Amino acid sequence: MPMSFYAQSTVQGTVTDAGTGQPIPGVNIIVQGTSNGSTTDFDGNYSITNVNNGDTLVFSYVGFVPQEIPFTGQGRINIVLQEDAAELEQVVVIGYGTTRKKDLTGSVALITAEDFNTGNNVTPENLVNGRVAGVTINTQGGPAGNSEIRIRGGASLNASNDPLIVVDGLPLNDPRDLSNGSRSILSTINPNDIESFSVLKDASAAAIYGNRGANGVIIITTKRGKKKLQVSLDSNTTVETLTDKVDVFSANEFRSFVQANFPDRVDLLGNANTDWQDEIYQDAFSANHNLSVSGSLLGDILPARVSIGRSDLEGLRKTSKFERTTSSVSLNPRLFNNHLKIDVNANLNFEKNRFAPGVEGAAIVFDPTQPVLDPASPYEGYFEYLNGSGFALNNVPRNPVAQLLQTRQIANVRRYFGNVKFDYQLHFFPDLRAVLNLGVDNSTTKRFEERSTQSATGFNASQGDF
Length: 466
Fold this sequence. Notes:
Helix content is 8%, strand content 39%. It contains 6 helices and 24 strands. Strand 11 and strand 12 form a beta hairpin. The relative contact order is 0.10.
């Protein structure tokens, strides 16, 4: 038995607030570098076991400065936590304007660029996925897939549970369907242009938005011009591969199964060895390029920022593709000794989508002994089950590869949105401000679907015509 076993001790104590002297419930206590930890109860008391001499106890709580205490055999350690002034002074954007964290009465979360998720984040919501308590984000498959965002769960069985999205004070129009051709309400926005997110979770924080904010509000603040000239170029390329597949019979296993159970149908089997899941998927390449220039014009009077971005993403499912071109301009003049603040934001974005039909079901059940291509097939050389007349049979699976390659669902979206905000602080009464915000959000879509005239899915097999 190791000697360290005998040196393990139990530490108890109380954690209080330096400002009020009151106990703090929910403080995290952990032995540094291990998973051994505990939390304080409602009275601020804690107890943690298996602590060795030389270990360091870390006490942490949101809004307070963490403390690290070396353990040298103390049986009791009482901690007094100091408020984290830097965090409490953070400026949070809310419906009525901005305020400091320490002045908030509602439930609001602020996520800045330092807290964003890193990696290949194509849509804005993925920057904060898993970063905010009470907020769940479930992203669908496909490039730039639509995300289901829920703040503190859903409140309705029939109505929408989606939160209101506000960009620089402009509430975005969400059609809540894909008929507009866009992948999602956020897919046209470049994540590289975003400075911070404010998530308003409760009724008091979102009250200014009325019933539109009933499911919470996500306020997105974009980047603005700086006093000094800054040029930023960001470029990345990624490759995504399929990591797992549905376990189905291989061609040889399927032949053995048919021979053992349906010997009268062996003659219907083919001679190929096809993995239909491999045939419908591909390695997905993506590239993102962003260029931004910010600085100040006319001295320090007119901070400005201009950015352009380009994203090209392939989906794992063949033919699925997402292309986006974004451009934005931000002008933020400050006049009359900062008493008049003007913010001009303009965005013009283009999105092109090719939607691939869902063929996973057909790929899973399709006969693995049949080939993808059949030179004798009248359907552009793709294998299909034929009847005695040479037409495709009804009520049988269709070739999933043919469905992908013989169908084109294209949507081109042009979206422009922006706003002009005037914020005037009265000289004779600085606590009184007049705010005027004018905005526009417009989207135009051209969407069409093409299907080959020689496709089995577009051919009436029983009548022999289209």
